[in-house]
Amino acid sequence: MIDSSGARQAVLEAERVERATASAEDAVMSMADFHSWFNARTRANTFQVDRIPFAELSGWDFDPDTGNLVHASGRFFSIEGLRVRTNRPWMGEWSQPIIVQPEIGVLGILVKRFDGVLHCLMQAKMEPGNINGLQLSPTVQATRSNYMKVHGGADTKYLEYFRPESRGRVLFDGLQSEQGSWFLHKRNRNIVVETEDDVPLDENFCWLTLGQIRRLLLLDHMINMDSRTVLACIPPALTGPQGQEAGDDPFTRAFLRSLSDHGSAVHDSGRILSWLTELRSRQELVQRRVSLRQVTEDGWRLGSDVIDHRDGKYFDVVAVAVQASNREVAAWTQPLVAPKQAGLLALLVKRIGGTLHALVQARSDAGMLNVAELTATVHCQPGNYADVPAEHRPHYLDYVLTAPTSRVRLDVLHSEEGGRFYHAQNRYLVIEVEPDLDEPDDRYLWVTLHQLTSLLPHSNYLTVELRSLMASMRCLAQRL
């Protein structure tokens, strides 16, 4: 059984990498100074999150006609019911609560060159669902309701750099999906803008190089989900040299070839697009919004302080009261989705023709907009499959759970979106497998990292979980 390395081991690893690469970068802030700054921001701010009954929500209520949990403004988001029908053989039809948030928010990272080295402006931000309070967020992380100040709060800092009239150079700008299991058709604008302006530095923000961020991605619950999805979209050409200290390690060479268009790929891009389009064409995913009350027909229970499933699986819906000194609004209440357990995201990789390939699957989730998206080889909450017949358990789940540590290339715990989910976390793994391991069926395909990156400018091709893995994998060459 693989054991998570833990925060202390990850910190030691990050320090080792810092020593190995210090001469390659001219950073505005050293790693030691960063940790001092981050700890100081934690001490300087006050955070408190308490579970409360639904009746104590302020501005939120259950609609008398539908039972949906909605905000009085008609904005932000709502908790509704969703009826889903698919043609998969196991549990092909079900109902569940779902977050409905039609607004498209902004997830933006402002970048600037200091002495020729690209730096990202990152924010120490508290979200109510975070396990550990503060995490590193993008420069701007805001829903439309937030930055339009529907809540009556303060302005969103640095938003002006992501406006159409900004003088900055746009390096990436695209709509990306979010968790299809819990959101209905949710997308956010992921944008990276480079500026040459002198940017006034707020006390809750800092400049970090991409190399430093890669090292921080080794730490549990440090870089939040919204940062990871944007970081995955930064063009590889801008990320700087990687892996030069790793020498002639075969895995590193294969990994770097996989990031570039010089590597030899098993399938060309046309084949990958045709494969996914064909799967989307024959996969059935029928979604029908229903009242929240109607999900009780499939075992959901609507209580005074929790909405949960009678089997003790999947997730709960809870209510919280929040106090945070470094947010646009200092105190508020809201509902959150609380997963029953940590998820598992494992990407199996192998070297083919000297180029590292990843085994991705085309997966359909309840709330997906375009039927199926590419995700990790294993993508699940293992406990949900404890009593499922062996033939319907996720492919390679048991393989991943028993993989020898010698084959594990990455093992880290990352939090998911703390603004909507309560203590949601996934264990992210990269495991190098035997050369003879092949696709189990036609929903899986071996692809290079460059091919995955080339799909990012298009919406709804890669799940947010796969994008998190791709961002985290950037540190692999540095670690070896």
Can you describe this structure?
The protein has 480 residues and is α+β, with helices and mostly antiparallel strands. It has a domain at 246-285 and 340-479: Alpha-Beta Complex (Nucleoside Triphosphate Pyrophosphohydrolase). The protein has 11 helices and 25 strands. A hairpin with a 2-residue loop joins β19 (343-352) and β20 (355-363). It is globular, with a radius of gyration of 22 Å. Strands 6, 7, 8, 9, 10, 12 and 13 form a 7-stranded mixed β-sheet that branches. Strands 19, 20, 21, 22, 23, 24 and 25 form a 7-stranded mixed β-sheet that branches. The protein has a 4-stranded mixed β-sheet with strand order 11-5-4-14, with no helix packed on it. The two termini are 22 Å apart.
Give the SSE layout.
Elements: H1 6-21, H2 31-44, E1 47-52, E2 60-62, E3 69-71, E4 78-86, E5 93-100, E6 105-114, E7 117-126, E8 134-137, E9 140-142, H3 144-147, E10 169-177, E11 183-184, E12 187-194, E13 205-209, H4 210-216, H5 225-233, H6 250-259, H7 269-282, E14 285-290, E15 300-302, E16 307-309, E17 315-324, E18 331-339, E19 343-352, E20 355-363, E21 373-375, E22 378-380, H8 397-401, E23 408-415, E24 425-432, E25 444-447, H9 449-454, H10 464-473, H11 476-479
Helix pairs in contact: 5-10
Structure keywords:
480 residues; seven-stranded mixed beta sheet; Nucleoside Triphosphate Pyrophosphohydrolase; disordered N terminus; alpha+beta
Summarize the structure.
The protein has 480 residues and is an alpha+beta fold.
Largest sheet: 7 strands, mixed
Tell me the overall shape: globular
What is the gyration radius calculated from CA atoms? 22 Å
Task: State the low-pLDDT regions, or none.
Answer: 1-24, 241-246
Average pLDDT taken over every residue: 90
The CATH class of the domain at 246-285 and 340-479 turns out to be Alpha Beta
Kindly report the oligomeric state of this protein.
single chain
Tally of extended strands?
Answer: 25
The CATH architecture assignment of the domain at 246-285 and 340-479 turns out to be Alpha-Beta Complex
Q: Quickly give the structural class.
A: alpha+beta
CATH superfamily of the domain at 246-285 and 340-479: EvaA sugar 2,3-dehydratase subunit
Helix content: 10-25%
The DSSP helix count reads 11
Report the end-to-end length measured between terminal Cα atoms. 22 Å
Strand content: 25-35%
